[in-house]
Write a structure and sequence with these properties.
The complex is a heterodimer of chains A (89) and B (576). By secondary structure, chain A is mainly α. Chain A contains two helices and no strands. In chain A, 1% of the residues are buried. In chain B, the strands form six sheets. In chain B, strands 2, 3, 4, 5 and 8 form a five-stranded mixed beta sheet that branches. The longest helix of chain B has 38 residues. Classes of the chains: A mainly alpha (89), B alpha+beta (576).
């Protein structure tokens, strides 16, 4: 029996398998890449939100606002010189 | 045979003809293929890549600026910017009108731009729009409209630090202030990568991994400034400037031992978040503006006198009768003070006293003392646009100039220079250039004897304690300092406007803070340093000591010591 047709057949099947695998991996790469892109966009978005939150926070804790709230809502004030007592050790 | 031979040759001929035609046809194909594959390869490949391979920029943000406690002073946030590919919009003008409406642009103008710039690949039409506006644009679903991420700078402290921190332009480059001074540090470099895009413009793969330029975000900057103290200093300054309808004013607060600038406020100021049409408030006057300091220079003249060895702190100088002529120029005191010790010369701020002291010394020595304290040279703070002031070379002084220099005229300085020079007395005779950056200290160098520094500090504390009701005095803390009230030179002569100033430090036993204050051209009755600048000094110093938890070193002021307004008129240093 001649071995050649068998080898040819095997090679042909192998070739087909490799091609399918290649296409499969290409597709996987693209899918993963698309996910990466999405993740990066998400990162940019979150960074942006972080910066916005920082700005919001710094507006909320701005000295003038705190001072106003302390004075008007909590009735706080800076002590007069006479009200300060220094304790020496 | 011949016939058949001729037959064959005819057939052969036909064959040859057909083959020749085929061959020529084949040759044409080969040549064409060669032209495309080999000669035109670059062109076609490039054309193909233009359609699918795109270089994508990876934008990076500019570094943030924080104060010494990590409170943000300048932040960048990502904002979408809208751009167009004019060539793709030329046939959808109905949608262009909608786009213009959403972006609040003029539709006709936009169409005009599109038709005239069809060759452009990308063109910004509106930069840094709100996320809501961006959503509205996306909803139009137009071909040829693209978004790019850009960064917008926000300054949470607004006008409080406007002219110190500065601002950036639309390209995110530092334009003024520390934003410009440290532009290289703050600026990042955007990265680049090449990607393959599909027909819808989504990136499907990275290519040329090696050629990717990694994005480098800008580095953050931590300043030496303290936001709380800055806020207090700015508000106090603003109040005083309005109260006296002054042209401008500055406050500088330095940490004595490190030279760190803890607060630096200027009026007028501006809000870097708003429109920047009026540039009057842009200058950081404490660093860029120079003026003749007046009497606040007297302690340095006293240093020259003490260093000469001819005088001690209690040497007596006769200042009567309150007028003194030098080369035809008459120097006045506020009144005839009679015989004064060196301490009292400072306490009364006697012009005649310092003039007599320094005229006995060489000109070079006085110049040398001023020079050592940093006058006439940039402080080395590195702030962009910093002024060096002016100290004339001693070989050009006439006797009149010599006397004028002793009371702070004929030379000019910045408020920051004065603060740094006074810090020497507070810092055991060592000069340290001021810095705006946290934990980035400049080299210290000894410029006067530590004993000398202690003596002058003690003398300066008398300025406040010996003038009853001095407005620079504090409860619980000892204060050393000096007022100045200098006429402002204008148009070749001296005007009726004054520069009121006070520079001092506290607590004297273990100095922590130097505060320098100057108010330019206060209008109205009060214009003396002791009336205008000293109260501002006291308020800023008091807040500073409280915020830094500095232990008190003195008994509280008694009610008598606090008597304000009335005794003020007879307080001599206030006229200094």
């Amino acid at each position: 029996m001649n071995a050649q047709p068998v080898i040819t057949m095997v090679l042909a099947i192998l070739l087909a398998a490799v091609l399918v695998a290649f296409v499969f991996s290409q597709n996987e790469t693209r899918k993963v890449f698309a996910a990466l892109q999405q993740a990066e966009q998400e990162k940019t978005r979150i960074n942006g939100e972080w910066a916005r939150l920082q700005i919001e926070l710094s507006t909320l804790v701005s000295n003038s606002r705190i001072e106003h709230l302390a004075k008007s809502e909590l009735g706080m004030k800076l002590p007069e010189d006479e009200q300060i007592m220094v304790i020496k050790r | 045979m011949t016939k058949s031979g001729a037959q064959i040759s005819r057939t052969q001929l036909r064959m040859l003809a057909v083959m020749a035609v085929l061959l020529i046809g084949f040759m044409v194909v080969v040549v064409r293929a060669f032209a495309i594959q080999v000669k035109g390869k670059d062109f076609y490949q490039a054309q193909g890549e233009i359609r699918h391979v795109k270089e994508v920029e990876m934008p990076v943000s500019r570094g943030a600026i924080y104060d010494r406690n990590g409170e943000p002073l300048a932040l960048s946030t990502a904002m979408p910017s809208v751009g167009i590919v004019p060539g793709q919009l030329i046939d959808q003008f109905s949608k262009v009108e909608q786009l213009a409406e959403v972006l609040q642009l003029d539709a006709e103008e936009l169409k005009q731009i599109i038709t005239s710039r069809t060759d452009r690949q990308f063109l910004f039409i509106k930069r840094r729009i709100t996320p809501m506006m961006a959503e509205a644009v996306k909803a139009l679903d137009m071909r040829g409209v693209e978004f790019r991420t850009e960064y917008k700078r926000f300054y949470p402290t607004g006008e409080i630090l406007g002219n110190v921190v500065g601002f950036t332009n639309i390209e995110d480059q530092g334009q003024e202030g520390l934003e410009r001074t440290y532009d290289n540090w703050l600026t990042g470099t955007s990265g680049k990568k090449t990607v393959v895009k599909d027909l819808l413009g989504h990136a499907v793969a990275d290519i040329d991994v090696d050629e990717i330029k990694a994005p480098k975000p800008g580095k953050d900057l931590y300043l030496s400034l303290d936001r709380r103290l800055q806020y207090a200093a700015y508000l106090a300054l603003k109040k005083v400037v309005y109260q006296h309808q002054a042209k401008s004013g500055s406050v500088v607060v330095l940490d004595v031992s490190t030279g760190e600038v803890l607060a630096m406020a200027n009026m007028p100021s501006f809000n870097p978040n708003g429109s920047k049409e009026d540039n009057n408030g842009w200058r950081n006057r404490a660093v860029t503006d120079i003026y003749e300091p007046g009497s606040v220079m007297k302690p340095f003249a006293i240093v020259a006198a003490l260093e000469s060895g001819q005088f001690t702190r209690s040497s007596i100088i006769d200042t009567s009768p309150g007028v003194y002529e030098v080369d035809g120029f008459v120097i006045h005191d506020f009144r005839d003070y009679g015989e004064l010790s060196l301490v009292d010369i400072l306490v009364k701020s006697s012009n005649i006293g310092v003039a007599k002291l320094v005229l006995d010394l060489g000109q070079e020595h006085l110049w040398d003392v001023y020079h050592r304290f940093g006058f006439g040279q940039s402080t080395g703070s590195g702030f962009i646009g910093e002024s060096a002031g002016y100290l004339p070379p001693h070989n050009r002084w006439r006797t009149v100039d010599h006397a004028a220099l002793s009371r702070g005229y004929n030379l000019s300085a910045t408020t920051l220079q004065l603060a740094s020079a006074y810090a020497v007395f507070a810092n055991k005779g060592r000069y340290r250039a001021p810095t705006f950056i946290k934990n980035s200290l400049n080299e210290e160098r000894a410029i006067i004897d530590p004993a000398m520094a202690a003596t002058v500090s003690e003398m300066l504390s008398h300025v406040v304690t010996d003038n009853a009701g001095h407005r620079a005095g504090l409860s619980n803390y000892s204060v050393a300092g000096k007022t100045g009230t200098a006429r402002i030179a204008e148009d070749g002569g001296y005007s009726d406007n004054y520069m009121a100033s006070f520079v001092g430090f506290s607590p004297v036993s273990r100095p922590r803070l130097v505060v320098a204050v100057n108010i330019n051209s206060p209008q109205g009755e009060a214009y003396y340093g002791g009336q205008v600048a000293a109260p501002l000094f006291a308020e800023v110093m008091k807040t500073g000591l409280r915020l830094l938890n500095v232990p008190a070193d003195e008994a509280p002021l008694t009610a008598q010591e606090k008597t304000p307004e009335k005794t003020l008129q007879s307080t001599e240093d206030t006229h200094g």
